[in-house]
Amino acid sequence: MRLSINNIIVLFLLVTSASLMARSKRVGQIPNGGKFSCATCHVDPAGGGARNVFGQEVEQNYLDGSGNVIWGAALAALDSDGDGKTNGEELQDPNGAWRSGDPNPGDVALVSNPGDPNSTTNVQLATSMPLRFALKQNYPNPFNPSTTLSFVIPQSAQVRLTIYNSFGRPIRELLNGALPPGEHTIAWNGLNDAGESVGSGVYLAKLESGDFSRTVRMLMIK
Ligand SMILES: [Ca+2]
Ligand SMILES: [Ca+2]
Question: Rounded to 5, what percent of the chain is helix, strand, coil?
Fold first, then answer.
């Protein structure tokens, strides 16, 4: 049979639309896949041709037998483009819990491209838990001569961090002032307010902010 021009055009359109459908189907198999559409997986934003690093990862390891994207914890945990954010963080689904057909997770404005290292979300994940007050155990512990304390405050607040000796007497005010929300780290060099090196023993670090108060025990061993 000789193919007429019309037949060739119809054939071409069928093949093209089939491949376009396959592509747009895969966009729907990635959380917030519509944000960058084909550019999520392809170098050319119009789609087709070479895949970017995320697209290569998906093609090589995360397609099932029918060519469907296997989105889940494993793919979400990788940082395909090496920009310091996991694929899941970039797509607002850090744990890979989203499934095709679910509403898009997180905040679409914060979605960045997992295949483009120049596209990075710098904003706190909209899906992450709200920050809560916390004071972490000092590190190292036991320590000599210095140790580090980390704490989290959920909003801008007046914060005081004081070191007490084992008799409950304050010996060093490490911090007393307003801080922005987030995690903060401060070192204690083992000196008291008089600038003297303290001796071996148990010390307490107490974080206070509004109604919040938390204490950790620290051990200095010389
Ligand atoms: Ca990344
Ligand atoms: Ca990126």
Answer: 20, 25, 50
Identify which ligand lies nearest to the alpha carbon of 116.
2
pTM of model > 0.70 = no
Distance in Å, CA 93 to ligand 1 centroid: 13
Element holding 27 (H helix, E strand): helix 5-27
> Phi/psi of residue 98, each to 5°?
-65, 145
Rounded to the nearest angstrom, the distance between the alpha carbon of 150 and the centre of ligand 1 is 27
**Ligand 2 centroid, distance to 19 Cα (angstroms):** 26
DSSP character at residue 109: G
- Please name each of the domains of the chain with its CATH number: 5-110 (no CATH), 134-220 (2.60.40.4070)
Ligand 1 mean position, distance from CA 83 (Å): 5
Confidence class for position 8, pLDDT limits 50, 70, 90: low
pLDDT at 101: 86
Dihedral sign of CA atoms 94, 100, 106, 108 in order: positive
Query: Quick check: 92 pLDDT over 60?
Result: yes
Mean confidence (pLDDT) of the chain: 87
Least Cα distance to 155 among 132, 135, 177, 174 occurs for 132
42, exposed or middle or buried, with CB in 10 Å at 0-12, 13-18, 19+? buried
- List phi, psi (to 5°) of 30: -120, 135
